[in-house]
């Protein structure tokens, strides 16, 4: 990709909403060179694609924005994983991969982890409440989700920081242009995470527990004393890595954007402090208004027509959940952030067979966060000496840093 195109893609990723608006207003679909895909940005069109998984495959859902250098790929080759995962599978295989995750993130499992999540949220706020200022992404948003999903999976808390760091580095490696030496370092961090997860695969196979890691091991190896092969270990690590990255990166991003937009609209922050019963509505509005996961890719399995545009087999689409969530045909005054609006069903967590199985866990962590911050720091505001810049990505959209004072 040439430098000029890279610059345009960076601009699009930092603020995709004007691009979505143009795509919604155009006839048919718009091909966007920066995405190398047809942009699907209307609510009705995105829903149609999600409801037709046989014609719009998920095989390309996580194609990297950047292909790592050969030296970085060589490092990755020494790790584990690299197998199809739930977000890139279709049909019966997708159902098979999804089943243990749905069981592991059941309402009962989510309810069981909430006391721990509340305890950790309070402890993290304790760590900065007396300081008068905080950079929220590093001090809170980047910590709580990893600790919570780590608890659900069954990780030792001592392993969580390395797993979270490895996940962050894997995302950087695949979705941001980095110098070659930095790519190699990021790949080494990702492999270090995979080695930890492979150890858990072996331990849970030998001694099963009541946790999501055991569910995933059983789904791959089966019950009983079956041998844990190298291929099994690669597959289990792929599933664990995908689950953990989705479980902490998305929620971290959602916490950051939610607090950002509430503080950019002070009267809404004050309303939330005065009327905490509005927190669930605020969660839904924040997820709609600036979706953490802006979209996934799809590829056509045969000739198909969408929004009047004829697409050949193998056509790449970018399903813009963030664009659909700003569609005025679904959401009146969609560019207004308004926690008092009557919520419409949004697409921040997907839809149908590929709807996010962890959406309730993400919502609960955001609810706990807003309860803690509104109760303990009602005077919270954005630090005027630190302008907010959004991360240039469509995979986990959030502030690069969020400096707050009170």
TrEMBL record:
> Which InterPro entries does this UniProt record tie to the protein?
Cyt_P450 (IPR001128), Cyt_P450_B (IPR002397), Cyt_P450_CS (IPR017972), Cyt_P450_sf (IPR036396)
Q: Is the Iron keyword given for this protein?
A: yes
Q: Which UniProt keywords apply?
A: Heme, Iron, Metal-binding, Monooxygenase, Oxidoreductase
Q: Does the keyword Oxidoreductase apply?
A: yes
Q: Which Gene3D superfamilies match?
A: Cytochrome P450
In its UniProt entry, what is this protein called? Cytochrome P450
Origin: domain of life? Bacteria
Fetch the PROSITE patterns from UniProt.
CYTOCHROME_P450
- Family according to the record: Belongs to the cytochrome P450 family.
